[in-house]
Specification:
The protein has 151 residues and is an alpha+beta fold. It has helices at residues 3-10, 12-20, and strands spanning 47-51, 66-69, 72-76, 82-86, 97-100, 107-110, 115-117, 135-140, 145-149. The chain binds FE2/S2 (inorganic) cluster. FE2/S2 (inorganic) cluster is lined by residues 89, 91-92, 94, 96, 110, 112-115, 127. Residues 49-147 form the Rieske domain.
Length: 151
């Protein structure tokens, strides 16, 4: 049976689970047990700004784009709103949280062990054992400055 036919027999949900987990690199639990990223302590007192017209913010010009800064994943979601989450996964503390939009639904994910989170930090699977992802507040200030901060 060809791969495509095999995936079709599993249904869309199972196919997504099989393929999405490796879309961004299968870094953990692979043959050599090499895990990308590091275990990092959650930073405190997050409060910084980004110039939305600067080169570092170019990925925030498109809906679904994100950047990493100061251990924060800063996102322009599919609705065009800015959201921000900790880059530190609530599961085991690896700095591998990123943003993706499978099936046109924006989520945070960590591929070290497969945690998935809604944009409000709510776990979408059991990997993080119910621990939510830290979410930061965002605010667009004058002169296209985006503030990311702890509320
Ligand atoms: S550290 Fe992110 S899923 Fe385990």
């Amino acid at each position: 049976m060809e791969r495509k036919a095999f995936l079709k027999t599993l249904g869309a949900g199972a196919a997504f689970a099989l393929t999405f987990s490796c879309l961004h690199g299968c870094s953990s639990d692979s043959g050599d047990n090499e895990i990308e990223g590091e275990v990092v302590e959650e930073p405190t007192g997050i409060d910084f700004t980004i110039d939305l017209n600067s080169a570092e913010a170019v990925n925030l010009t498109s809906n679904g784009g994100f950047i990493l800064k100061d251990l924060v994943v800063i996102v322009k979601n599919l609705e065009g709103e800015f959201v921000a989450a900790s880059q530190i996964c609530s599961h085991e503390g690896y700095d591998q949280v990123r943003f993706a939009s499978p099936d046109n639904v924006g989520i945070f994910y960590c591929d070290v062990h497969g945690s998935r989170f809604a944009q409000d930090g709510t776990p979408l699977n059991s990997t993080s054992e119910g621990r939510p992802l830290k979410i930061y507040s965002t605010e667009v200030l004058a002169d296209d400055m985006l503030r990311i901060f702890e509320a």
